[in-house]
Amino acid sequence: MRRWTCLLCLFSLFPAACSRVSDHVVLLPGPDGRTGVLSITTASGAAVLAEPYTGVDVAGGWLSRFKTSPRMVRDAYGRLLDMQPARPRLLVFYFATGSNALTPESQSRLAEVRGELASLPAGEAIVIGHTDRVGGTEANDQLSLRRTELLRDLLGGRCSSRGDRRRSR
């Protein structure tokens, strides 16, 4: 009798041990509402998530698909979602051809961008300078650098540029 009791206990614990989730993956849409594709592969198989709020639990190498909702994700992971850093923003400034003089439209945006940078708790901006393909490579490289350094200085030094912990590209 004791042997059967031990076997019964062992078999009753087996499903609980096997059902332990080791990974829980949910595909969320980006801020723009678009969703990418995510592939999860284990020794026992693979799953491709391509729809928002689809997910996979991985337990013991086995995959179990599920569907959730924005509300369920918010309820379960709201605190974690709120802790995410702000997404990077792309701000484009235009220059007069062949110079490092900002166009009037770009000049008028400087105060607004300075204010945005100042309001960030740990504001950092990476300034990347580009040119068109008019002119030689060396001249365009120098012009890109001058444009980058100008913007770095105009934005109040809250940008990165090589050398003094600031990085210009």
Describe this entry's structure for a reader.
The chain is an alpha+beta fold. The protein has two domains: 16-82, no CATH class; 85-169, OmpA-like domain (60s Ribosomal Protein L30, Chain: A, 2-Layer Sandwich), CATH 3.30.1330.60. 38% of the residues lie in helices and 18% in strands. It contains four helices and seven strands. It has helices spanning 2-18, 70-82, 104-119, 137-154, and strands spanning 23-26, 38-42, 45-49, 54-59, 62-67, 125-126, 159-160. A three-stranded antiparallel β-sheet has the order 1-4-5, with no helix packed on it. The chain has a two-stranded antiparallel sheet with strand order 2-3. It has a two-stranded parallel sheet with strand order 6-7. The N and C termini lie far apart (77 Å). The model is unreliable at 1-17 and 160-169 (pLDDT under 50).
The proportion of residues forming helix, as a percent range, comes to 25-40%
Q: Care to count the β-strands?
A: 7
Ranges where pLDDT stays below 50 over 5 or more residues in a row are 1-17, 160-169
Question: Which strands sit side by side, in order, in the main sheet?
Answer: 1-4-5
Query: What's the number of structural domains?
Result: 2
The assigned CATH architecture of the largest domain is: 2-Layer Sandwich
* Percent of sequence in beta strands: 15-25%
- The oligomerization state is single chain
Spell out the helices and strands N to C. HEEEEEHHEHE
Shape: elongated
Structure class: alpha+beta
CATH superfamily of the largest domain: OmpA-like domain
Query: What's the rounded overall pLDDT mean?
Result: 79
CATH topology title of the largest domain: 60s Ribosomal Protein L30, Chain: A
Number of helices: 4
The biggest beta sheet reads: 3 strands, antiparallel
